[in-house]
Each structure stands twice: as structure tokens, then as C-alpha cells.
Amino acid sequence: MRVENIILTGFILDLVFGDPRSLLHPVVVIGKIITFLEKILYKYKKIGGIILNLIVVGLTVAVTYLVSGYLEIIEIYLIYTIFATRSLALEGVKVFNILKKKDMQLARKELSYLVSRDTGYMQEKDIVRSIMETISENTVDGIISPLFFMTAGYLIAPDTPLGVALAMGYKAINTLDSMVGYKNEKYKDFGWFSARVDDVANVIPARLTGGLLIPVSALFLGYDFKNSWKVFFRDRYNHASPNSAQSESAVAGALGVQFGGATSYFGKLKEKPTIGDKKKEFELKDIKRNIKLMYGSSILGMGIAYAVLRLI
């Protein structure tokens, strides 16, 4: 099977089934390795953090490359586990359905599993904003970035499993960032390298997503295409992260909402830069509109990757 069809098969499996929770998931394995090595390396602070990152990412790439070379079905399965399109949509729909039933306590609890901010006193519009920011940011982390590295790998070596190996290596980078890449007292030294590597890895995919995939998807879906591009170019750096606002700004412009503002983390209120223009208040239906944008961006990205790989 040609590489573009291998990727497409894994992509479609994810759209249909979502994460294979009852089967061995590579990201779970990566997380366990990180936890094990952290106990050994944490005492070495910055150097330990660098060693952790190099071991986990290097081991992930090497093992993925080796096992994917045995059978094509293994390669397809690993690609399937790399994408997070349906799972991201299901998390959004879950919060949407809970809010629709006006169960604020359960909605706050479900959101707390997805974000690091304090959710205990959030009102409906705060929950809607938070889940939308999460979906917007994870359109890059969970879909477009792994697709980018996968495509790059297969372009470099189309007759090898380099594409899936690089994409799984990206998942290791992203998992390291989510586990140790915090700027708090515990991880400011140990996790700084993992946080920086994640920033570098997302530079191109984040800008492709915010500057192209989301605005074009907005055009097809009948959302505000022009404003999506306008807000992207104006607000794409209004965030502590160099990449997070790239996709958030495009979504905010497309849907006429404003992200950022006052947000509580670990009991401390933080005034984040605003992203977008407040053309209207957040509405419950905005969650599903955001999910449509996420699906549109994912399918468009997959279509571009397929066309590029078809040429080789």
C-alpha cells in the first residue's frame, strides 16, 4: 500500500473509532516511561530534564521505526493511535451535553480533566470559552503537528516507516511537555528543555493551522473567513506560548468570540492577553461550531498531505 493510503487509513480509523481505549496505546506507554525515568533523573534538575527528553524521544522514534517495519498493519495501527480528531471532538461534545442539561458541577469536573486552570467556580460562558480554547490549541497538538511530521518523514524516505516514527516522536515530545513542561516550582528547571523542544516542534504546524487550515475551513463552513485571517495576523502572539494563539486567534476570528482574559490557575488569578474581538458572548452552540472547524481543518490538512505524498 502506498504511504498516502496508509496514512489515510489510520486517519479514517481515528475518525470512526477514536482512541483505542481497550487496546495498548503507545502514548500510555510513553507516559509510563516518563514517570519511571523522572524518579531517577529528577535530582539532576536541568541536565536530568535534558537526558529524560533525549532518552524518551530517541527511544520512541527507534522502537516505532523497528516495529512498524515488520508488518504494514502495525504501521497503520500506530498511525491510528497518533491522531486524536474524534477523541477531541467527543470531549467537546461531552461537555456540551452536560451544559445542555445545566449540570454545572459535572461540567466543571469534566473540564478539570482537560485543563490546568481552576474550574471550581466557572460559569457556563467560562466553561464554553475554556473547552473552545482547548479544542483550538489541540487541533495543532493532536492532529496537524503529527500529520506534518508524518508527511515529512515519508517524503524523506517513502519506502521506510520514518513517517510514523517521526510522528510518534512528536507525540513523545508533546507528552513530555504535558507532564513535565510546567513553569511551576517543581518543573521550572527539570521541565524547561521539554517545554522548549515542544515549542520548536510546533512552530511550523501551528502557523499552517492558524494561517491556512482554519481560515479556509471557516470559508467552507460559512463562518467569518476574512475575520479569521485578520485576527490571526493581529493576535497570533497574544499568548505566553509562541504557538497556542496561532490556532486560537484563527478560531476566535472565525466565530466572533474573544479568548483570553481573566483566568485562575492554582488559586491565582491571571490576566491573559485577549485574542479576538468580542462581537458576541460565548454561546453553548459555539462548542459544536468549533468542533466543525476542527474537523474541517483536519480533513483539509489530510487532503493536502495526501496530495503532496501522491506526487512522490
Structure commentary:
The protein is 71% helix and 5% strand. It is mainly alpha-helical and 312 residues long. Helix 5 (85-100) runs antiparallel to helix 6 (104-112).
Percent of residues in helices: over 70%
Distance, first to last CA: 14 Å
Largest sheet, spatial ordering of strands? 1-2
DSSP strand count: 2
Topology overview:
Layout: H1 3-17, H2 26-41, H3 45-68, H4 72-82, H5 85-100, H6 104-112, H7 124-156, H8 162-180, H9 192-201, H10 203-221, H11 225-235, H12 244-255, E1 259-265, E2 268-275, H13 285-310
Antiparallel strand pairs: 1-2
Helix pairs in contact: 1-4, 1-13, 2-3, 2-8, 3-8, 4-8, 5-6, 5-7, 5-13, 6-7, 7-8, 7-10, 7-12, 7-13, 8-9, 10-11, 10-12, 10-13, 11-12
Explain briefly what this protein structure is.
The protein has helices at 3-17, 26-41, 45-68, 72-82, 85-100, 104-112, 124-156, 162-180, 192-201, 203-221, 225-235, 244-255, 285-310; strands spanning 259-265, 268-275. The chain has 312 residues and is mostly helical.
